[in-house]
Design goal:
Strand content: 15-25%
Order of helices and strands: EHEHEHEHEHHEEHEHEHEEHH
Structural class: alpha/beta
Distance between the termini: 59 Å
Shape: rod-shaped
Number of strands: 11
Helix content: 40-55%
Number of helices: 11
Low-confidence stretches: 328-332, 363-367
């Protein structure tokens, strides 16, 4: 986008009128907006507050110095020096253009008063401590300013001025940049945090480590020809499963997310597959009776939920859903649902456990038993 930079031009006035015109022409050719004391030729303390505010609003500052020090302020320094110090103190990029041969200047354009000459010498010494260039005549000064300001803009880019019609697009672009910056910051944080934070995750049970869980099963008998049954007795048992096995059953069910009730159903089905044969072998059942209704204890289920979150494999959230009921004439009511979903780490773990390897069949899936193949 095309920008125009506002440049304050400072100098003594009557002796450098021609030089100022060359500088202003050079700035206009660079699409800059020149401003300065030619609009306030009668320098006074009354106009200083306005001038200082103007300098602060400018993008760049130029001072031209030849053989005169200029009108003095109540502090005993020239307004030209005061303007320069204002620019420097307020962080406005400044550049000084010094006459290379002040001894060749007309007498009328040179200070003859010893005190003013001394002040001018000190001011020139101050300018030489910062960025400055030399010039010999007005024509050369215009060219020197053009090259120098171009380099100054490249080295020290500033806000500048834009057309009013482009302001909205500029604001939108800046807002997009800020939002992209925030997105990158959040993505960076997510790389280091995905799920519940644990100081030392290596100390947690994981992978092929076995977890002893509690569960119940029912001894039932059929009560009718349509497969209805009646529970005769409920027994408590314990069994051991690896964390990879438990996770491999849960993970596909919660991709991308699933209600907690579905997770419980999947785990209860796994219990039936894993332990029904063992339970049957240890029982002598009367004719017509059978085992069913495998169910994990609440304590074991909660332990699994906490462990998988601590390992950073899953995230569990509560959500409020709007439910509509025909009998209530479509009145809306809120219902709290607990949902499970995989983290990026959990998704990678699922791929590593369940994905097929080359030249392998289902029986070669990493960490999966035949009973789990039947479950899947």
């Amino acid at each position: 986008m095309n920008k125009r930079y506002q440049v304050f031009v400072s100098s003594t006035f009557t002796d450098l009128a021609a030089e100022r015109m060359e500088v202003i022409k050079a700035l206009l050719e660079l699409d800059c907006i020149p401003c300065g004391m030619e609009y306030f030729p009668a320098a006074s303390e009354d106009t200083w507050h306005y001038i200082s505010d103007l300098i602060k609003q400018c993008d760049y500052y130029i001072v031209i110095v030849a053989g005169r020090y200029g009108s003095l302020t109540p502090e005993g320094i020239s307004f030209t020096q005061k303007e320069y110090e204002c620019a420097i103190n307020n962080g406005v990029p400044a550049i000084a253009f010094l006459c290379a041969e002040p001894e060749k200047l007309p007498v009328k354009n040179v200070d003859t008063d010893p005190e003013r000459k001394q002040k001018l010498e000190k001011f020139v010494a101050l300018l030489k401590k910062h960025l400055c260039k030399e010039w010999h005549n007005a024509d050369e000064l215009g060219a020197v300013v053009s090259r120098s300001v171009t380099q100054l803009i490249k080295r020290t880019p500033r806000t500048g001025w834009v057309p009013a019609s482009a302001v909205r697009s500029v604001e939108d672009a800046n807002e997009i940049l800020e939002l992209n910056k925030k997105i990158k910051e959040l993505e960076s944080k997510l790389k280091h945090y995905d799920g519940v934070s644990v100081d030392d995750i290596s100390s947690l049970c994981d992978g092929d480590d076995l977890f002893e869980l509690g569960y119940t099963y029912d001894i039932c008998e059929k009560t009718g020809k349509y497969g209805t049954r009646e529970t005769i007795k409920t027994n408590n048992c314990k069994g051991k499963l690896s964390w990879n096995k438990l996770f491999s059953v849960i993970a596909p069910k919660i991709t991308p997310f699933e209600a907690e009730t579905a997770v419980k159903t999947a785990l209860n089905k796994l219990l039936e597959i894993e332990f029904s044969e063992t339970v049957n072998s240890g029982l002598t059942l009367e004719k017509g009776k059978f085992i069913a209704g495998f169910k994990m204890t609440s304590f074991s289920f909660d332990t699994i939920k906490v462990q998988l979150q601590a390992l950073g494999l899953v995230i569990v959230n509560k959500e409020m859903l709007e439910e509509k009921n025909d009998q209530e004439r479509w009145r809306e009511r809120s219902k709290e649902v607990i949902r499970w979903r995989l983290t990026d780490k959990g998704r990678n773990r699922m791929y590593s456990i369940l994905a097929l390897r080359k030249s392998s069949g289902l029986s070669k899936k990493a960490g999966i038993t035949k009973s789990e193949q039947n479950f899947i």
